[in-house]
């Protein structure tokens, strides 16, 4: 037996012969030998147990009960001796590890171990090959040859060694004889067990549940390393030992655990025949070709570690990934997290017992559920709604028609349906035109008649009227003067009329007045009413006859508009036809009426055509026509006249946008009622026949009069104000009728109103405020508007002095555009009594956010998020508490970990 | 509306089939949104960013839940306000007299109707404290009195011996502001003079903004002044440039002050305005002076007085109430009852501002009337949280009962009419902590935190990059004399800190220079004392 050795090389040098060789067996040899030895020993000894450390311990345990005799102690001593033999390999290993860092050792869990030492390897081999053949061997292998290289030699030598060892193994079936690097089975098992423990611990860190991990460990490892066949093999092999593999051990290369036939099994070990040996040699050669001759050089530790890390990383990711849904769900919940979390008996968070979700195809998870679903499906009780069939539209011919076609058809039907209605509409429009036209004439006639009566009663003399007419003309001239004004020029130059409504209105107004004046001077009648019909633009300019003809023409057109198209189904139905017929009848009646009216109107006109309007200035004041009086007394017209009166009053109450006619004539027509006849210095002659009731209604007196005042004031006092202040359209500015002011209080009223009127007439200048306000507004608009500013520096970059032409002087001019608020984007646009300041309030700026905070995409989103009420004053207690609840609430108690996700 | 074939035309046809409970739910949501909603939803559908989308969706659901809960909480408002209702068509509520009402209500309520006959020092102006408990009376001829009017307990009464133009409670009943002949004075609850605001000259109108602690005064010169009563500083002073004002009011919704002028204009001001930039809004109300205004919670109503018409403005509708003499005062109650004082009469109108009606129906007759007994009305004002209208007239003060005028469901966290001293003190501290800054007043009070829409370019130009850095020397020499000269104050504060920077070095230099000068001056003086002959022996120190 070799002595204790701490180091390989000196011993090699010192010892020689077969002993040395034995000690210096390479690891591969040793392992194979060890294995073989073990197998052989098993074969030979059978069930006899090796007394390895473990077994010895077990023995000791067994013997614990019995007092140990001296013999036993001796035994122990013997064993100690034996153990003394065993340690050398361990010691040597440790020593070598300490001594030479470049020497690498490898071993696998099966107890195979090797040593990698590129420098010494050769040495080893050489020593092996040279010295393996000792003198005694030479005798044996006389006729043996090494036909091939070293390796061959080595192999044979190995075989030789095996053969040698056979005997020895039989002699000492002891762990000590297993070779320096071999591990006995018990040790291997121990190691693997401890490795397993380590492994389990590691995995405990990763995944909090060791049970399942333990169950799954095999699967998992195969999962992870499925791509790596070799490792899988190792695994499989390792699993034979009933434990998990040691991932930390560097054992990428493993001899395949393929069952093989050895010489031993064939019983050919003792063959001496050379022929047979040759063939055997061939066999072993084949085997060599099959399996790797030598374990591949394992990966560098670093590379291996890298691989390991990546695998470990993937694995960790996967295990952590299982928590993803849980974490997401918790993060997304609006409600806060309350610890301890609700734990369920099963410990599985996904089983929520609080509510049973309706079962359907998707949620059916368990087998039972699935079966029940299947049964229900079969029995036609399936819960899943079948996709709806698309409604197919089929036309009369039985063909399916497209959606578009269908729409078109429907539209056509609708058209047919409302044809008669459309006709009624058109008739109505024409009728209203005709009506207005007729009644306008009627009104004019009435006015003239009234004036006539007044003149007759001596209330107005021709002097008076002449004066008013003169005044009118004067104002018109004033208007004409405007044309030459600075304002008008400016408006023309800047093209302001294109966008500024006020200016445009002013310009057109001016043009119209101009035209009027010219006509008047020429002695032609002025078509005052043209403004009334501004809505229908097509015939506003035309004369009355034209208008009438046009209307008749239109009526004719409507008559022609009989339905000729195909009838829809609906229209063919009985009741629809009836309704249609009724409507048609009505329409026809209307048309007939209108015809009649127009015809009678034509008569009128033919009569009044010879009226005095056509004659020039001199005729003013004589506007009387006996026929008007006659006509007014006609019974059929009388009703209409009354109606017209009503309309007139209504309009004055509502203060319609004043027509030019009412402006001109209001002084004479619209008069302030005065029952008592006590008129002041500025009071107007009263109109007859205004009832008490009407007067009661009028709580905004003399509005029209005032409107004129505004205009005139605006025009005369402030020629720069472009348009006369627009008359206020206060449709809603209705006066509440004081119902309660019935009898006794009524008597106080007139005085009050009289005073008021007097004051208003006396201080008509109050309306200056309105004009001022308008001017102020215009100024504000102009100031805030976009401007073009000249930034030219005089003399900059230009020649000066004599001889510089004007063109050169003006050559370089610079303009910059100044941002502003356009008139039509102002907040007070078209609100004539309001000026909203468009200037920025600088002091408020410090409470504004300078830029959009992160996360928000638009201003609306950000500002919306600010408006959520927070304070307890603005919402209920519950919503307040919900809003201010902390995200995580920890209650007293044991906080168990969140149940592990199970998928 | 019907068609010829008898079918009825519906405005909004219900095209989809919706179950009843769903419709009910939608209606409820709609109402909640209308009453308690805070603006339009943002569209979350087309947001790309998942997280933002989820956040905003959560936000929207919070909004919705909050409004629904607020709507649901309405059932907790147990107080209902009842009105006088005519039983037949011929009955008129305005015919009902005060003694009839007084007879038919409970004793506690009946006691709220009373008259104070003070016919010597009138006409009287007055003010109720914010919780409606205290009444402050100011007679034109210098009589000031404050009282707990429900208990009839007089807190203080004194004579200032000069004209009193307006009186106003500040945030509690412990402070009152009185606009006297020349200055505005602040007295405490027991009538002790605390302050004389001599920067406010000849003030004719007072107004107090309780959340900003601002006293607003409007004087004969037409200057609008804001005084912070918590810090005592004059916040701003704005010239309205329209001469002596006619009225002053505040919008309780956003704290904007309304000034009414003699040319019929109303101007809206905030402390951030300046006289050069002009008011926030100018409004031409009518011809003639705007005698009085009242704004109802900023929702929509503003009432003005013309010579003979009281004009109500609601959104864009303008209505005219008939009055027969120029109205002197107008007030809108918690529940929208409008009182108009004109001549010796006061008329009260109901339902002028119906909140949610699509179309406002015209009110034909007033709700109640009072007066006509020769007492000229000076001011009308509603008592907060009560069905009581106070009327100050030239013969004293009258308190009348107007059923249904006050808010029956008060929020005692906001103003508590039954508060104890301790509660009052706590409320005062809390409201001081929650005080709003004067710059937060704007037409849209929710502008705070909104995005500044100016471009960076614009902001750059407005930032004055060429501004000269402040020169230390000139700054120091601005106030060079006295014990509290800038230099001394600076050194006093800086010496303790012991921070040496450029400014400090400069200051030290100036200091040394000044000391040297001083010494030389002293030397000269000494020499001058000794005379020309002995001057050479003067000791140099």
Automatic annotation (TrEMBL), chain A:
Coarse class of the protein's main subcellular location: nucleus
Biased composition (Polar residues): 649-691
GO cellular component terms given for this protein: small-subunit processome
GO-annotated biological processes: rRNA processing
Organism of this sequence: Xylaria hypoxylon
Annotated Acidic residues bias: 75-85, 120-140, 162-172, 193-234, 530-541
Region (Disordered): 1-262, 457-496, 513-700
PANTHER family: U3 SMALL NUCLEOLAR RNA-ASSOCIATED PROTEIN 14 (PTHR14150), U3 SMALL NUCLEOLAR RNA-ASSOCIATED PROTEIN 14 HOMOLOG A (PTHR14150:SF12)
Signal sequence annotation: none
Name this polypeptide is given: Uncharacterized protein
Ranges of Basic residues composition bias in the record: 21-30
Biased composition range(s): Basic and acidic residues: 468-487, 513-523, 545-566, 575-589, 607-617
Pfam families to which the protein is assigned, alphabetical: Utp14 (PF04615)
Keyword tags: Nucleus, Phosphoprotein
Domain of life of the native organism: Eukaryota
Compartments in which it is found: Nucleus, Nucleolus
UniProtKB/TrEMBL annotation, chain B:
UniProt GO cellular component terms: 90S preribosome; small-subunit processome
Keywords: Coiled coil, Nucleus, Repeat, rRNA processing, WD repeat
SMART domains: BING4CT, WD40
InterPro entries attached to this UniProt entry: BING4_C_dom, WD40/YVTN_repeat-like_dom_sf, WD40_repeat_dom_sf, WD40_rpt, WDR46/Utp7
Any Pfam family the entry gives: BING4CT
Subcellular location: Nucleus, Nucleolus
Stretch list, region Disordered: 1-43, 516-541
SUPFAM superfamilies reported in the protein's UniProt record: WD40 repeat-like (SSF50978)
GO BP term, pick one: maturation of SSU-rRNA from tricistronic rRNA transcript (SSU-rRNA, 5.8S rRNA, LSU-rRNA)
Domain BING4 C-terminal positions: 366-445
Major site of localization recorded for this protein: nucleus
Annotated Basic and acidic residues bias: 29-38, 516-529
Coiled-coil features, chain-numbered ranges: 49-76
Function description: Involved in nucleolar processing of pre-18S ribosomal RNA.
Protein name according to UniProt: U three protein 7
Organism the protein comes from: Xylaria hypoxylon
